């Protein structure tokens, strides 16, 4: 019952994003006047419930990482609201924001570059404690050791430098650093993309383990669809700076509703060779339009296999088409109005399954 | 680190020997004679005697090895004698300037303080100006401050010192009369009045040289800080909730200064080498002026010794820069 469905009634959202926009200005010409903006994130809204993992997937350049960074205000968002734990992060003054940082942390993609090469592991993990607590040295050292134990790093490594570690170990340092101040919300920005496959599983299991023990809430950004299926409770699919579909994991992977989500998920290889032989890939034609100049209407209308006239004019809203499933597509509106062809039949069919379950 | 240093010092020996030979041959083969400023009325046999007295009639290899012996053995002995009051040298032949018939090291001892005061101060001031400009330019990239800094660096770098020097003299010494045009080497700082006079006469040459040094170093600092500001670990530091000041001064600056320290260390030999052009313009009796004077009259021992000391300094500061790099950057290990 608690799985998938509509957990909103049971748990309250820890993170609540409304209309988040992140536009990067483009300057050109002799006078370097502003001539436009790259709309990396263009009106994104979602909730993340307490203790939940929200997966954020999409192809390269669709704005996943920008969402993650804007959420923690590592970028100044152009517009929108990001309420984390009851306070709007997007509008906090700098000092209040800094005091808020212990609550929300980030695990970065590149564990090599995101650690200061001139600081020892103990200094890297302990620096947040220097900044945000008034503990004495002993207590800080004890906490650093505790964190190193938690992420499975040998305490003897405390005085080594980041370059002396392997990729997986460095990511553990990054995780320990993020955990130092007992955050409630962690943005994992492709934490496994830079690691080789054998280490990926270790790190993901570590993240899951920590979530169970510490009750963490994750936003897990990745382009690895299988890994997201493994770790996330709900998954948001992004395309060109907007959310195309946001659904519970099982429902999304079993039956994606948005045409883009369908195309994206059809790219996941199947482990079973008999199923793999029958897997039908939806190959999208053409390229992703430039985020500086997105198409009028639906962002996906230039490549959508089921594009309609209305798609080129009217931008679809992200709407709840089934309990817990949000889709931004005109096809859905058609289906609820009744009368369209095959996808509608599928929807109803699944609805019944959902109710039975 | 120690083995690295020792190895580098050992490899420096053949390098320096080769450099000394090349300099010696270059100076010796250059046209001109040590007697070129002796009047033509002096009869040939007297000229021959003068050459013999200076040892200039010997074959070039003999003179070279004699110089090597004097430089590496006899002069250090005199140095020890001067320091400890002993008498190891026992009156052995020193390196004598053909021009002034005075030991070359004595000339260097007289000239070096002027050079170090002026050029050293200029270098120090240049570094002190360049660092804040470079850091703030990078932090506010493309701001008006950065643009102004870029212009300043461009101007400082591309306008030669013989132009800025004369321009400053024209404006501040001739027209405004605030500072003297000539640097008085005999001025001794004994009281407040002489101290202000010293400051006044140092102002122009120091400004000229500091502008030039600051231009170069500020560009290095800016690009280095810029490179580090974009690094992921800076974002990590911000995500930790560090204050901006701490992010820039602790995380960015410490990493950015590694290449800057190297550039500054490599530039230090030029302080000892003096600024030949600037010393000429302001009539500062420094090392650079001594070198130019010696070149003009083919004073081989002086040119040879002074140039060789520059070579030693350059090799030494290269080594120091490398060692500093190893100390500042934990990723670099020389063992």
TrEMBL record, chain A:
<keyword id="KW-0547">Nucleotide-binding</keyword>
<feature type="domain" description="ABC transporter">
    <location>
        <begin position="17"/>
        <end position="265"/>
    </location>
</feature>
<dbReference type="InterPro" id="IPR027417">
    <property type="entry name" value="P-loop_NTPase"/>
</dbReference>
<dbReference type="InterPro" id="IPR050319">
    <property type="entry name" value="ABC_transp_ATP-bind"/>
</dbReference>
<dbReference type="Pfam" id="PF00005">
    <property type="entry name" value="ABC_tran"/>
</dbReference>
<keyword id="KW-0813">Transport</keyword>
<dbReference type="InterPro" id="IPR017871">
    <property type="entry name" value="ABC_transporter-like_CS"/>
</dbReference>
<dbReference type="GO" id="GO:0055085">
    <property type="term" value="P:transmembrane transport"/>
</dbReference>
<dbReference type="GO" id="GO:0005886">
    <property type="term" value="C:plasma membrane"/>
</dbReference>
<dbReference type="Pfam" id="PF08352">
    <property type="entry name" value="oligo_HPY"/>
</dbReference>
<dbReference type="InterPro" id="IPR003593">
    <property type="entry name" value="AAA+_ATPase"/>
</dbReference>
<comment type="similarity">
    <text>Belongs to the ABC transporter superfamily.</text>
</comment>
<dbReference type="GO" id="GO:0005524">
    <property type="term" value="F:ATP binding"/>
</dbReference>
<protein>
    <submittedName>
        <fullName>Dipeptide ABC transporter ATP-binding protein</fullName>
    </submittedName>
</protein>
<dbReference type="GO" id="GO:0015833">
    <property type="term" value="P:peptide transport"/>
</dbReference>
<dbReference type="InterPro" id="IPR003439">
    <property type="entry name" value="ABC_transporter-like_ATP-bd"/>
</dbReference>
<keyword id="KW-0067">ATP-binding</keyword>
<dbReference type="InterPro" id="IPR013563">
    <property type="entry name" value="Oligopep_ABC_C"/>
</dbReference>
<dbReference type="GO" id="GO:0016887">
    <property type="term" value="F:ATP hydrolysis activity"/>
</dbReference>
From TrEMBL, chain B:
<keyword id="KW-1003">Cell membrane</keyword>
<dbReference type="Pfam" id="PF00528">
    <property type="entry name" value="BPD_transp_1"/>
</dbReference>
<dbReference type="GO" id="GO:0005886">
    <property type="term" value="C:plasma membrane"/>
</dbReference>
<feature type="transmembrane region" description="Helical">
    <location>
        <begin position="198"/>
        <end position="215"/>
    </location>
</feature>
<feature type="transmembrane region" description="Helical">
    <location>
        <begin position="120"/>
        <end position="139"/>
    </location>
</feature>
<keyword id="KW-0472">Membrane</keyword>
<keyword id="KW-1133">Transmembrane helix</keyword>
<dbReference type="GO" id="GO:0055085">
    <property type="term" value="P:transmembrane transport"/>
</dbReference>
<keyword id="KW-0812">Transmembrane</keyword>
<comment type="similarity">
    <text>Belongs to the binding-protein-dependent transport system permease family.</text>
</comment>
<feature type="domain" description="ABC transmembrane type-1">
    <location>
        <begin position="112"/>
        <end position="321"/>
    </location>
</feature>
<keyword id="KW-0813">Transport</keyword>
<dbReference type="InterPro" id="IPR045621">
    <property type="entry name" value="BPD_transp_1_N"/>
</dbReference>
<dbReference type="InterPro" id="IPR035906">
    <property type="entry name" value="MetI-like_sf"/>
</dbReference>
<dbReference type="Pfam" id="PF19300">
    <property type="entry name" value="BPD_transp_1_N"/>
</dbReference>
<feature type="transmembrane region" description="Helical">
    <location>
        <begin position="151"/>
        <end position="178"/>
    </location>
</feature>
<protein>
    <submittedName>
        <fullName>ABC transporter permease</fullName>
    </submittedName>
</protein>
<feature type="transmembrane region" description="Helical">
    <location>
        <begin position="256"/>
        <end position="277"/>
    </location>
</feature>
<feature type="transmembrane region" description="Helical">
    <location>
        <begin position="306"/>
        <end position="328"/>
    </location>
</feature>
<dbReference type="InterPro" id="IPR000515">
    <property type="entry name" value="MetI-like"/>
</dbReference>
């Amino acid at each position: 019952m608690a799985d998938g469905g509509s957990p909103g009634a049971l748990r309250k959202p820890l993170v609540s994003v409304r209309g988040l926009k992140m536009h990067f200005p483009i300057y050109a010409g002799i006078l370097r006047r502003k001539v436009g903006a790259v709309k990396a994130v263009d009106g994104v809204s979602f909730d993340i419930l307490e203790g939940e993992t929200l997966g954020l997937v999409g192809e390269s350049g669709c704005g996943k990482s920008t969402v993650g960074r804007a959420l923690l205000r590592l970028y100044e968002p152009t517009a929108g609201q990001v309420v984390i734990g009851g306070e709007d992060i997007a509008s906090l003054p700098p000092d209040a924001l800094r005091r808020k940082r212990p609550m929300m942390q980030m695990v970065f993609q590149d564990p090599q570059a995101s650690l200061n090469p001139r600081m020892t592991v103990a200094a890297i993990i302990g620096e947040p404690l220097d900044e945000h607590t008034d503990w004495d040295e002993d207590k800080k050292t004890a906490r650093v050791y505790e964190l190193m134990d938690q992420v499975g790093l040998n305490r003897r490594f405390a005085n080594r430098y980041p370059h002396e570690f392997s990729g997986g170990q460095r990511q553990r340092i990054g995780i320990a650093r993020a955990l130092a101040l007992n955050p409630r919300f962690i943005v994992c920005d492709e934490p496994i993309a830079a690691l080789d496959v054998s280490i990926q599983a270790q790190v993901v299991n570590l993240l899951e383990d920590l979530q169970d023990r510490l009750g963490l809430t994750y936003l897990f950004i990745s382009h690895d669809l299988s890994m997201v299926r493994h770790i996330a409770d709900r998954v948001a699919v992004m395309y060109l700076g907007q959310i195309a579909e946001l659904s519970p994991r099982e429902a999304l992977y079993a039956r994606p509703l948005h045409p883009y989500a369908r195309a994206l998920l059809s790219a996941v290889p199947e482990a079973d060779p008999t199923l793999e032989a029958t897997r039908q890939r939806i190959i999208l034609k053409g390229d992703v339009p430039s985020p500086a100049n997105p198409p009028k209407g639906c962002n996906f209308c230039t490549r959508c296999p089921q594009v309609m006239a209305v798609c080129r004019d009217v931008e679809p809203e992200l709407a709840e088409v089934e309990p817990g499933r949000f889709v931004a597509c005109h096809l859905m509106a058609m289906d609820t109005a009744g009368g369209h062809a095959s996808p509608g039949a599928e929807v109803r069919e699944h609805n019944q399954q959902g109710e039975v379950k | 680190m120690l083995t690295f240093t020792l190895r580098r010092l050992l490899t420096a020996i053949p390098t320096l020997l080769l450099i000394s030979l090349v300099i010696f041959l270059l100076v010796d083969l250059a046209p001109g004679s040590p007697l070129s400023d002796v009047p033509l009325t002096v009869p040939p046999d007297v000229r021959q005697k003068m050459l013999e007295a200076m040892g200039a009639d010997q074959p070039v290899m003999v003179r070279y090895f004699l110089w090597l012996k004097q430089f590496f053995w006899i002069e250090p002995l005199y140095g020890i004698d001067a320091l400890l009051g002993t008498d190891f040298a026992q009156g052995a032949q020193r390196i004598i300037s053909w021009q002034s018939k005075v030991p070359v090291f004595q000339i260097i001892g007289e000239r070096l303080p002027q050079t170090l005061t002026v050029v050293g101060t200029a270098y120090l001031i240049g570094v002190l100006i360049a660092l804040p400009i470079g850091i703030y330019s990078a932090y506010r990239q493309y701001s008006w401050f950065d643009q102004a800094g870029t212009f300043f660096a461009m101007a400082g770098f591309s306008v030669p010192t013989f132009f800025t020097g004369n321009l400053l003299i024209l404006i501040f010494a001739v027209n405004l009369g605030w500072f003297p045009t000539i640097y008085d080497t005999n001025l001794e700082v004994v009281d407040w009045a002489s101290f202000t006079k010293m400051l006044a006469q140092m102002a122009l040459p120091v400004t000229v040289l500091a502008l030039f040094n600051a231009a170069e170093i500020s560009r290095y600092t800016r690009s280095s800080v810029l490179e580090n500001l974009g690094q992921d670990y800076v974002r990590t530091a911000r995500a930790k909730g560090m204050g901006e000041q701490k992010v820039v001064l602790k995380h960015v600056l410490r990493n950015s200064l590694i290449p800057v320290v190297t550039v500054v260390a490599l530039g230090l030999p030029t302080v000892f080498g003096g600024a030949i052009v600037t010393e000429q313009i302001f009539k500062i009796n420094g090392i650079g002026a001594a070198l130019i004077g010696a070149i003009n009259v083919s004073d081989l021992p002086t040119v040879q010794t002074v140039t060789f000391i520059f070579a030693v300094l350059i090799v030494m500061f290269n080594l120091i820069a490398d060692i500093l790099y190893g100390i500042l950057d934990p990723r670099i290990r020389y063992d």
